Amino acid sequence: MSRSLSGLGVATLWLLYSVALHAASYHVDYVGGNDTADGNSPQTAWKHCPGDPTATGVPAGIALAPGDTILFKGGVAYQGTIKLTASGAPGRPITLDANTAGGYGSGRAVIDGGQVLNGWRRYGSAEEAQGHPRWGELFYIDVDLDIIANFNHGAVVAHRQEKHDRQAPWQRIILSDGDSHLLPIAQFPKPSDRFYPDLPKDFLKSPNRLVVKDGVSAITDAVNLTTADPNHYRGAFLGVHGGNNHVYFAAVTGYEPAEHRVTFAQFKPTTYPTTSYCFYNTLRLISEPGEWCIAPIGDKRFRVSLLPERLVAGLPANIGFPALESGIAITDGASHLAIRGFLIQRFSGGTGGISVARHEKRSTGITVANCEIRFVSGHGGIGLNYCDDIAVDNCYIHHCPAWTTAVFLSRVNRFAVRDCRLEKNSGSGIRHYECKDGKLTGNAILDHYGMHSSSVNFYEGCADLLFEGNYLHNTLAINRNAERIVIRNNVIDSQGRAAVNVAMWTSGTVGGKAIKDIHILNNTFINLNHEIDYSTSVFGQRGKGASPPTGLVVSNNVLDRLTDGLPGKISGNIYMREVGKDYLGDDGQVVADPAVLFVDPAKGDFRRRPSGPVMTAGANIPPPPATWGGPR
Q1: What is the dihedral of CA 598, 601, 606, 608, to 10 degrees?
Q2: Which residues are CB-neighbours of 123 under 8 A, at least 6 positions away?
Q3: Beta carbons within 10 angstroms of residue 188's beta carbon
């Protein structure tokens, strides 16, 4: 007998064969399944997935093993939260599969935390609708909810507050018209984009600075606060711009018509000379189809009022809200897991659509692929915390409100985010904290213009990252200590809405390093807001408490422009506005006409036009398709 088949070798081979032989495929059908069945076939499917706290019978007690697969029936909406605590093994992950092979049901499976509101009633009189002039078009429904803390905590809360019971009410209870779109909270003034209710550019402007006295905050505005009704703002919330460029929410506590003054809880952040503010969430503010508000009417009972966009049989139809907090939660250091092909939607107040929790034992070997996540409020559509060896591939994360980041990474090592489409989420597209050894390639990161949001953030000690082949809107920001980051062959189109394409903010101490060795190579940075005189394609913070970046290389890019004070090796760039001679050098050019440089700039195609000047400069990636192509 050969050495490889003798003694311990035979035992090892038999063990591996035995484990592979016993890897199981279980089936879940939320509509037609039964937890008393064995789950081994479509005909004996479970109703619940192992790890769902509402599971009973067999799935409640089963121990998942390396190589096991849980198949969810395609076309079925699974109503629940799944908590994964079991681990697979290298090369043999435990897999949750949403019918990616197409053989179990029709289409992909859905994990849905939403609840449809049935029983809408039309308001019966103007008096019942608080004097609303369109009372005959308004509907209401009374629901049992435990969110009273979101109304009465008596504090001013940042728009990005982490504790869900201190968020503004409409950040917890998010209405959607079925699977089609989110509905906007009642607001005045109306936002320029209904998905972003917290942009100070849309707010009222008082010439007076916000005043705080004896624990009470007051805004005085004789131009905008003119209604004579002392009850006009009763029950409303305020959004106030302050601090380090944030929006803070608080309940209105009083209104004095004669003084043109509205009051609320103590505002502790810093304030601006001109106070920007907005009102939210009362019946009086509803004026456009789709707008809604929510108000307490008793202990754990609330009334939702709505001006519907459409009626079916005379009533609002398929209006839902997130009744559950989290979708798929990986906890207790669970490792070697794969999640494939799901549509995950309508969760709020928890950890997001898919999350990896912080644990003393770090999770490792997690793959999320071909998933769509929408209408989710939490840390992230996908939230990754204190974990290693992570892959996020070909996912579509969009329309996640309440300052939710599409992909959130905290203390993650050895990771890749590839070929994803991240679109119109209220936080940033991708946000990193102390992440190392990562690759972000081939992603479209579009329309992230929420308050204090960027397309991508590298925060607090990020190192050894490659950012390549991505197409972005807005700004890429490097915040507080980073090193060895390569930004290569990307398009950043700020669409005339941002002053900076790449920003480096060097103040801070987390990670113990300044920003250094950032290489910005062969990118196209375009369409800055030219009305801002300091606009620049690459910004390095200067001034008190900040040290300039070191080891910076900016070469062979097409840049909108550079302003004074940027240190480093700067060469071979094309500029679309005039720059200083120190930036232009001997190998740079100024070319102001985008039609000379790009294939089709009007359609966002910023690939270089053949035979143009300095063809070594700029990115070579096409614009993203108009829509996501679906799971592959």
Answers
A1: -10
A2: 129, 132, 135, 136, 138, 139, 140, 305
A3: 18
Question: Which tokens sit at 555?
Answer: 């070469």
* Residues in the chain, pLDDT under 50: 1-20
Kindly report, residue by residue over 440-458, the tens digit of the pLDDT.
999 999 999 988 899 999 9
Phi and psi dihedrals of 72, rounded to 5? -95, 140
Strands 396-398 and 372-378: parallel
Kindly state the DSSP code that residue 3 receives in the 8-state scheme: G
Query: Which residues have CB under 8 Å from 383's CB, separation 6+?
Result: 351, 352, 354, 355, 356, 405, 408
pLDDT of residue 2: 34
Strand partners, 83: 329
The CA distance from 450 to 404, in Å, is: 10
pLDDT of residue 4: 35
Token readout for 438 is 């990562």
Render pLDDT for 307-320 as a digit per residue (tens, 0 to 9): 999 999 999 999 99
pTM of the model: 0.94
Could you list the beta-strand ranges (E) of 43-178.
69-72, 77-79, 82-84, 94-97, 110-112, 114-116, 121-122, 139-144, 157-158, 176-177
Report the alpha-carbon distance of residue 335 to residue 279 in Å, rounded. 46
Residue of 462, 464, 467 whose CA lies nearest to 442: 467
Residues constituting the chain:
632
